[in-house]
Amino acid sequence: MSLWRQIRRGLYVLTHRRVADQDIADEVQHFLDQMTPAERSSARATMAREQVRSYGWENLVDQVIVDARYAARRLLASPGFTIACALTLAVGIGASTAIFSAVYPILFEPLPYPDAGRILMISDRGAGGSRVDVTFGTYAELGARSRSFSALAVVEPWQPTLTGRAEPERVDGQRVSASYFRTLGIIPRLGRDFDAADDRPHGSNVVLVSNALWQKDASILGKQITLDGDRYTVIGVMPAGFDNVVSPSAQVWSLLQYESSAPFFRDAGSHYTREWGHHLAMIGRVRSGVTLDAARREIDDLARIPTPEFVRPSWASLSDGLTVHALQDDVTSGVRPALLAILGAVLLVLTIACVNVTNLLLARGVQRRSEFAMRAALGAGRARIIGQLVTESLLLALLGGILGLGLAAISTRALIALSPPELPRVDAIGINGSVFLYAFGVTTVCGLLVGLVPALQNTGNLRQRHPSTSHPSTSHPSISHPSTSHPSTSHHSISHHSISHHSIRKALVVTEVALALILLVSAGLLLRSLDHLFSVPPGFRPSHVLTMQVQDAQSRYGFFTRALDAVRRVPGVTSAAYTSQLPLSGRLDGYGAHMESNTRTDESGDFSALRYTASPGYVETMGIALHRGRLLDEHDIAGQPHAILVSESFAKRNLAGQDPLGQRLRLGPDTVWATIVGVVADVKQQSLDGDETDAVYNATSQWVWVDAKQSFVVHTQGDPAALAPAVKAAIWSVDKDVPIVQVATMTDLVARSEAKRQFALTVFEAFGLAALALAAIGLYGVLSGAVTERLREIGLRSALGASPSDIVTLIIRQGMTLATLGIALGLFGAIVASRAIASLLFGISSLDPTTYVGVIAVLLGVSGLACWLPAMRASGVAPLIALRTP
Amino acid sequence: MEEKNTDVIQGTLDLLILKTLSLAPLHGFGIARRVEQVSRGVFKVNPGSLLVALQRLERAGWLDAEWRQTENARRAKFYTLTKAGRKQLEVETEDWTRRAGAVMRLLKAEG
To answer: How much of chain A, in percent, has pLDDT values that exceed 70?
Structure first.
């Protein structure tokens, strides 16, 4: 193989340079010895040897090694400069690598399932196109009618209590259809997967457990564990690397065991059964050979065209169609805008870092022009010198890259710690192969970019110049007054160079200021949005409220009542209550509401409302305002006429123009009419920026069942968090075996509901500050460079009577011109960037004047400071000293 | 005084070397001398270019190189055509013939 020969010969030469050189010398000598004296006189042994020696790729390697050594010596010779550059690059490379490590697995890497692109998520479409969980009925119908999917599965969250060990433990889990793992394409590493025979009403109680759970007890397979008081047999263990993106924290999986044979899903009383509740997520794997589009079209058709064998109730009529998303998009859609914005921001930071280093290298290149001219005079070509300079910048970038990778390793951990709870695939974030590759790529590109501009700039026209004329020009072109006589022609080329050199440096500083403005405006807009969001009234009074979720697998009403009594007796507690669902807790529990005034029998005209089934005192404890009528109290108990409260928007939307009080409605599975006795304020259930949802409040003692999970809300006199241990102890004094989870103050829950924006804001603030600092350093660097080069002129000016304040004005004006130019340019960029983050903004326009004015003021202030220092130095220049400098 | 051009035609040095070595293994000088003799002095090969070309052909796998004793008891690097080299010679010969023929036809073309 000739390629193999090439490599082998080259490597041999590299490792045995002396032997190889001798070989060439011998061969050339032999040749010359045989020539006639006449011929020999015209042939030159040295030249022939060099000619032969320069053949082969290994010479390039040699040259790179020589260059790298020289570059290393140059960098070591000026450690301050090297450290400054390397650190600046490290910030840019490190920050961008850390962000890449988070963004890549979430947005770009395929999900860790075989052929993951074929997995789709299918949801019901509510009024206005909102996405709603599907019902089991829809799943059963699609499963029977669809031909495009090789597997369909439904799944719902499940948080059972694991007992039978030292302490009761709440574990995260999922109830799934038997096909769930087959749809994902994952098989258990031990034991067996669910099969259809397990997944029917009253089927056997079987669970699959996570690898983590198995590691705690390796003998768990085949054993029975107690979940929510029922015995389950562990039939399998999931693999270690199984990344369950639908519910990453799930440890146990059991079956939904819904009725799938009776097509109508009605019980004996002809009421719809739980099979028709909207609480399932549905995924499907598209059969191979069927395109994703074809599968979407089929789903659309099936939704649009009902068949008589599959009857649909009004709330699952699919009349608005079904929404189909790739599972990956579905998992990431919530965080995508924030992550893309952060990715954009970090690229700006990286650019600023590169611009800054380019600037430093440019300045240094000027000081080294005589060195380059000397080398050119000795025969080095321009390409050779540029190669040398780029090698230097690559080495600098490599140093920055190594430091940056360390920085990235640390900040990745910080990112994970800061990350909002809804960030998916957090386990996949870390420094791995692709991240390493990215860091290396970025480092190389940075090294080339920051080196090339200064190298090209400082090596132009070397041959026309004499090394000795390369001292700084006496007159700075940008300030050369029309009346000042122009330097003599012998200096012309220098002046020409310093013009372009200075304009490049100025252009770079202007760029930095512009980029910093973009980042700061974005950070400012996010900050103002959060301010606006947190001033949105949530509909309740969050201060001094402690919340915790208590779970009683047996759903004993007596237990909850006695626990509540115990909590109310805790000193410092002013009032307490519990509720089936808590605002901003991430839960969403809605039921179909049927008004008595709606006389149509086919359920059309019914609508969905959030159900808060609570103990008396809930509305008061939460500080929800009563607008009309009365609240629920101790008299609204079983046996009494059912009383119900509705929210303001419920009354407005569904009972427009009527008096809500006294109207009767039936909720979900309830068979009894409940009378509306009061209207209360709207409460934000999902998020502060969400719309008000229709809501109803009823009493636990009057509802069909007692919810197993109740959120206690406790209003306290002092710091609510401090009372948590006492409140927990009070509940445990009634039953020490109930798990208590999600202990938080209501204020925390409000803050947490905006964690995504908060996260984006934190990152933007950090980046904005870094950008501001880098831009200020850049401005300072250019100005102080200019002052050094203008010492003579400045001295002359003060000798001619310019006052120190004249000099200060001169320098500051120069710097502020650059800053103003940068701000003007940055405004355009900021307008574009703020459009890009529009989905993260709330309550303000993306052109919010307050933000823009504030950021411009900050930038001007910091720029002024960066100009002030060189200006002060310039004003202190004594005329004599200035005149003495060469 | 007008000097006659004795440079090897661009791109034909490889062909000349391969052809020369197809007859017998030779050292660098031997190749140069032979090219000169056979071309009756039309081509003169300078040592630098020749030795670089030999390096290149050796690395391409068309030649093997080996230090041997010459008849006058000196050491010299001898080059031998390899199998791949022989094939390459055929390819290049055919290519040259085709192109030279075309040039000749152009030169002879009338009008």
So the answer is: 91
